C-alpha cells in the first residue's frame, strides 16, 4: 500500500533546544552518535507538541573541508546538515518538507553540506527534492579505531587524551597493535546555499566541486529503536 501524501497545512516546523532532539539522535537515528549541533528544528502537528521529526545542523567540520567547498572566503559560512530523522509511518514527502522548512529558518547566509550514506543504501532523495546541488561522491577521512572497542566513534577515542598535542602518538603507545585506521565509507555529497540572491550567486560562482547528475537507486530503510522512557522524562 502506497504512503498518503503529506498535507503541509497540518504540520509545522520550529526551532527547538538541543535537549529535545538529543534522545532522537542517540536512540532513533541509525548512527546512535551525537554530532555537533548548532541549530535544531522539530516537526510537529499543528496545535500539538508531540515531536514527529528532527533536523539538525552543526559546524564542527575540519577547516580543510570547509575551505574545500567555496574557498577560504566562504569557509565560515559552511555548516553540515548532520541529522534527519522521522517518526515511523509519516506521510510521503514529510522528510523533504522538514528539511526545506528548517533551511528557511536557519540564520543566513549559510552554505549547507550534507552527505547520504552509501553504506546504508541512501542516495539523498530528500536533498534532491529540496534542490540541493549534487557534487559527486566524497572520499571521507580515516577513523581511528581500537580493536575490541570498534563501537566507539573516532572522536571519542581521540578525546581520551583531551586536547593535548600528539594524541595519535599517545594512543599508539598505549594500545600498540590494537590501534589502527579504518577508511570511512564513500558518501554522496550535496550542497545548498541559503541567503539573499546576490550573495547566493557569488557563493555559487566559487563552488569548487563540479555539479553532476543526481544518483538513483533503491533506498534501504532502517528500523528505528524506541526512545527509553527515562530520556523522555528528562526532557
Quick rundown:
By secondary structure, the protein is an alpha+beta fold.
Structure description:
The protein has helices at 18-28, 63-70, 94-105, 125-129, 154-158, 167-175, 197-205, 229-233; strands at 11-15, 39-45, 53-58, 78-86, 110-117, 133-138, 142-146, 179-183, 187-194. The longest helix is centred in the middle third of the chain and has 12 residues, at 94-105. The protein has a seven-stranded mixed β-sheet with strand order 1-2-3-4-5-9-6, sandwiched between helices. The protein folds into two domains: 8-132 and 186-233, Aminopeptidase, CATH 3.40.630; 142-183, no CATH class. It is of the alpha+beta class. It has eight helices and nine strands. It is globular.
Query: What ranges have pLDDT less than 50 throughout 5 or more consecutive residues?
Result: none
- CATH structural class of the largest domain: Alpha Beta
CA radius of gyration: 19 Å
Number of helical stretches of at least 4 residues: 8
How many angstroms does the end-to-end distance come to?
A: 35 Å
CATH architecture descriptor of the largest domain: 3-Layer(aba) Sandwich
Task: Provide the helix percentage.
Answer: 25-40%
Strand line-up in the sheet with most strands: 1-2-3-4-5-9-6
Largest sheet: 7 strands, mixed
Return the domain count: 2
CATH topology of the largest domain: Aminopeptidase
Q: Which overall shape is indicated by the principal axes computed on the Cα atoms?
A: globular
What characteristics describe this protein?
235 residues, alpha+beta, Aminopeptidase, 2 domains, two-stranded antiparallel sheet, 25% strand
Amino acid at each position: 500500500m502506497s504512503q498518503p501524501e503529506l498535507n503541509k497545512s497540518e504540520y509545522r516546523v520550529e526551532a527547538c533546544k538541543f535537549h529535545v532532539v538529543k534522545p532522537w539522535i542517540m536512540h532513533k537515528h541509525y548512527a546512535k552518535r551525537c554530532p555537533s549541533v548548532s541549530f535544531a528544528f522539530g516537526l510537529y502537528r499543528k496545535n500539538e507538541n508531540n515531536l514527529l521529526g528532527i533536523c539538525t545542523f552543526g559546524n564542527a567540520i575540519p577547516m580543510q573541508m570547509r575551505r574545500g567547498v567555496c574557498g577560504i572566503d566562504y569557509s565560515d559560512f559552511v555548516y553540515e546538515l548532520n541529522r534527519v530523522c522521522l517518526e515511523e509511518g509519516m506521510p510521503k514527502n514529510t522528510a523533504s518538507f522538514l528539511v526545506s522548512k528548517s533551511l528557511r529558518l536557519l540564520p543566513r547566509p549559510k552554505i549547507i553540506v550534507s552527505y547520504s550514506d552509501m553504506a546504508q543504501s541512501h542516495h539523498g532523495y530528500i536533498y534532491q527534492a529540496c534542490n540541493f546541488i549534487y557534487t559527486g561522491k566524497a572520499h571521507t577521512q580515516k577513523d581511528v579505531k581500537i580493536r575490541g572497542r570498534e563501537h566507539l566513534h573516532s572522536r571519542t577515542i581521540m578525546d581520551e587524551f583531551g586536547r593535548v598535542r600528539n594524541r595519535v602518538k599517545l594512543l599508539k603507545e598505549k594500545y600498540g597493535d590494537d590501534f589502527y585506521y579504518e577508511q570511512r565509507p564513500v558518501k554522496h555529497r550535496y550542497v545548498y546555499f541559503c541567503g539573499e540572491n546576490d550573495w547566493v550567486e557569488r557563493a555559487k560562482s566559487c563552488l569548487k566541486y563540479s555539479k553532476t547528475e543526481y544518483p538513483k537507486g533503491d533506498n534501504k530503510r532502517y528500523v528505528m529503536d524506541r526512545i527509553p522512557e527515562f530520556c523522555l522524562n528528562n526532557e
